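Hey Z.,

So I finally got round to the flavin mononucleotide thing we talked about over coffee. Here's the setup:
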Amino acid sequence: MLTTRFSTAFGVEHPIVQGGMQWVGVAELVSAVANAGALGFLTALTQPTPEALVKEIERCREMTDKPFGVNLTILPTITPPPYDEYRRAIIESGVTVVETAGSSPEAHLPEFRAHNVKVLHKCTSVRHAVKAEEIGVDAVSIDGFECAGHPGEDDIPGLVLIPAAARRLTVPLIASGGFTDGRGLVAALALGAEGISMGTRFLCTVESPVHPGVKERIVANTELDTELILRSLRNTARVASNSVSRKVVEILDDGGEFADVRQLVSGARGRTVFDSGDVEAGIWSAGLAQGLIDDIPTVDDVVRRTVAEADDLISGRLTAFRRAA
Ligand SMILES: Cc1cc2nc3c(=O)[nH]c(=O)nc-3n(C[C@H](O)[C@H](O)[C@H](O)COP(=O)(O)O)c2cc1C
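And the result:
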């Protein structure tokens, strides 16, 4: 058993988080994470309306009596989703933990605080981590360059980003990006974090709601099989390498603009991948962690063996080094 300031403050058994994942963070996965003693997040925007999110929260409660949270990804879009209504749905459903990501959560913090909702803000740079602490979040999750989804534009891998953030923060820090197992958890703790968040690892589990073909592709993929798309637009995303993501890179490298790739990167096509298992149908997020994933275990297995491996490492291999010295 590993206890950290994060696991204590957020009321979870293990210092392990399942980060929000569009189309993936639904009740089946999140309740399994909760039942395993880790902290899972339903993804608010996967639900088409705030009312649908309320129902999804109820469905998750039917599958677990342990705590779970909701991810609210705040995107700077032309026609934004009704964020205030999603926030209200979260609060009125009695959810007590939120993972915010994307833009600053500042506008939402007074309401969350007034209702005792703890906020874990996910960001990709030390400056944004420091700012998040200043505006009053309860913990920060920092995504290194390895991560699936949006690594930001600074390209700083976790080995430097995690300790650089840890030394500037007072609130607990969660390390994210590239973590799959107990080795990663121990490394994150050594670097100053109080736990880890995993996306790609939980995407490739029995309870993950995506087609088995996607999980098999993750197992087959190595750490070389991702692409960084939309770099020239300063909206970088790390996604699985396939004919579509490679085409997007090629078009933008040749001077193309967003309009030239809009159709290729559409969310609807990405969703088709997860529903059909046709891994060439569109863009889908996956991280460098793919290179460390070679099975499709249950969520409970992932959490149990991560904690057990971390415990063994600390009391075995690492302690042995100390004795030898
Ligand atoms: C399929 C998929 C979808 C994701 N969607 C979101 C999202 O909607 N909002 C968000 O904040 N992060 C999203 N992420 C990022 C994860 O929450 C997490 O930060 C990231 O996966 C960590 O890197 P890892 O995959 O190496 O563990 C997504 C990740 C994956 C794999």
